[in-house]
Amino acid sequence: MYDDLGYDTRKGVEGGFFSRPQHVGARRRVAGTALDAAPFGARTCASGFVPRNERVHAIYNRSVGFVLLLLALPILAVVTLLVALTQGRPFFYGGTRIGRDRKEFQIYKFRTLDARLAQEITGTKVLPKNSGIETPIGKYLRASRLDELPQLFNIVRGDMNIVGPRPVRRELAAIEEARNPHYAIRFRVKPGLIGPTQVYMSHGTSKRLRARYNYKLCTNPVDYRQEVRLFVSVALAVLGKSLRLIGERLVGVNPRRKAADWNLSFACASGLDVTIWQVAGFELELQHRTLVSEGHMLIRTRHGLRRAAVRLVPIAANPGGMTHRAEPLNDIASHLIDRYLMDDPVIAPRPPRWKRPLTLSQGPDKTLVLAKVSGQ
Description:
Number of domains: 2
Radius of gyration: 22 Å
Structural class: alpha+beta
Number of strands: 15
Order of helices and strands: EEHEEHHHEHEHHHHEEEEEEEHEE
Shape: globular
Low-confidence stretches: 1-45, 358-376
Largest sheet: 9 strands, mixed
Strand order of the largest sheet: 9-10-13-12-11-7-8-15-14
Distance between the termini: 34 Å
């Protein structure tokens, strides 16, 4: 079985990363380059980015982009008004990005950051988590992805496609190319407003994982049916997430419910399996308050078990009752926590239908099962 992101659930995330076989595409080989010896196979888990016909693909993107722009005009007007009332001018951010064949163009977004601080912090890197430099409404716009809507103008102009790898700053591209010899494959196609890496991965997912996934997509042909399915799903998800964020702002989030939804537990290297009572980001509450150990956070999903390798570090008592902080030991662990527990992806995965029971029971010698996690 395979989930939305293409994880092979029979192998687990470590063994079957991005290997969904349903979308086998004809690999576009680049003769005489290092790409011929790329370590990734021809399989991919979504529509590719390589146009089958350049002219048809350009007409398709501009036409659909124009229709989407007309449909989005009321939302653009409302957001512009909110930005004007809460933070004043400028309403939009324009930054230089490089696209196909490394051509520079100006990308447009709603302004969400303090311009001076953003320039200092993000000169040669992406914005770190919890930077605290968002404008009053900027945090909401970034979380809901509504700040990206002005890029519909870029699509109509022909700078971007609807679906493709995200455009990057030249400084970041130079850094990533030095780390990854296959990174430059993304410049053979136009960048996109959306793409699987933006939809299913969080803002904080490492560039290495994004580049690995994008490589597979940049070497496979476009599947228009999958593209349409993707941007319809994204439109519905952005609308739903925008409303949900407003609701969470008003009533808050129950950290115990999230732990119960994913039936979270921590498996120590020694064999001890401890149930996680509640979770808020990378902070957890365990019964063993002094436990210091490396192991795996176990996330039970609809498509199988996800194992995030973490180190647990006790933290000082706090009003929320959290006892430990989980420190990811690799990029995949950080990605899994962001994807399943932080609600950061545009299309977040749905929890399994089965929920943890509401009784506290003692299991075998080395297993502690805590089921009273609902808080209701």
